[in-house]
Amino acid sequence: MRLKNIKGAKETVLKSHYVIENPNFFCGKWNQCFQNENPIYIEIGMGKGRFIIENAIRYPNINFIGIDVYYSVLIKAVKTLETLNLPNLKIIPMDAREIEQIFDHEIERLYLNFSDPWPKNRHEKRRLTSEIFLKKYDSIWKKDKWISMKTDNRHLFEYSILSCTNYGYHIKEISLNLYEDNPENNIPTEYEIKFSNKGFPIYKIEFKK
User: Fold this and answer.
1) Nearest partner of 28 among 140, 135, 136, judged by Cα
2) pLDDT at residue 17 tops 90
3) If you average pLDDT over every residue of the chain, what do you get?
4) Are 177 and 201 in contact (CB under 8 A)?
5) Partners of 67 in beta bridges
6) Is 95 a catalytic residue?
7) Strand 109-113 vs strand 40-44: parallel, antiparallel, or unpaired?
8) Longest dimension (CA), the chain
């Protein structure tokens, strides 16, 4: 999907006190950044931020970090946060391929919501549930490895099941149609609202290891 370039987006995003411009500095010491010992959950591909912002509001005793490479979508999250005070939320503008340089055995849950499916076979290594990324995640986990994923893409869903289970993860929870299952406490993303309103099934799965 081609994103519209927004003039001045990078400059605006980097001015926000929620944004960590040099995240490498906190590698292995993110609890110092939050100034507490609370669990840390991350979302790769946070987009406009609806999901992670709502999580930070609902769960003040959990620290959340949203990651996205596109300033043109992060600017919308930053503008939403201008009117909020959420000391348990940080944003990192970065490419997920660098994740092992940012965290060192301190993350307790990873959210992958409506990730780019990269449907062509030659792009498999870019999928966030490919073996390449699963190996990267190995060094971020504090103890248990917990990946929570939602998507509208059946192929990515099936691919992720095979990739993660082959890597040693087991399925903790699975839904082939999230809204038919009426989940409690579900927090939808912007894409999730859009796709579910059009009648598309939303797939959800949680992996643990």
Assistant:
1) 140
2) yes
3) 95
4) yes
5) 44, 92
6) no
7) parallel
8) 44
DSSP structure string for 58-73? H-TTSEEEEEES-HHH
pLDDT (0 to 100) of residue 88: 98
For residue 35, what is the DSSP state? T
Whether 118 and 154 have beta carbons less than 8 Å apart is answered as: no
Grade residue 4 by pLDDT with cuts at 50, 70 and 90.
low
Residue pLDDT, tens place only, 27-73: 999 999 999 999 999 999 999 999 999 999 999 999 999 999 999 99
Decide: helix, strand or coil at residue 173: strand
Catalytic residue chosen out of the listed positions 116, 138, 144, 181:
116
Detail the DSSP E strand segments found in 99-186.
109-113, 146-151, 170-175
- The pLDDT, as a whole number, for residue 149 is 98
Domain-by-domain residue ranges, the chain? 32-208
Please name which of 139, 113, 117 lies closest in space to residue 205, comparing C-alpha atoms. 113
When the candidates are 3.90.1150.10, 3.40.50.150, 3.40.50.1470, 3.40.710.10, the CATH number that belongs to 32-208 is 3.40.50.150
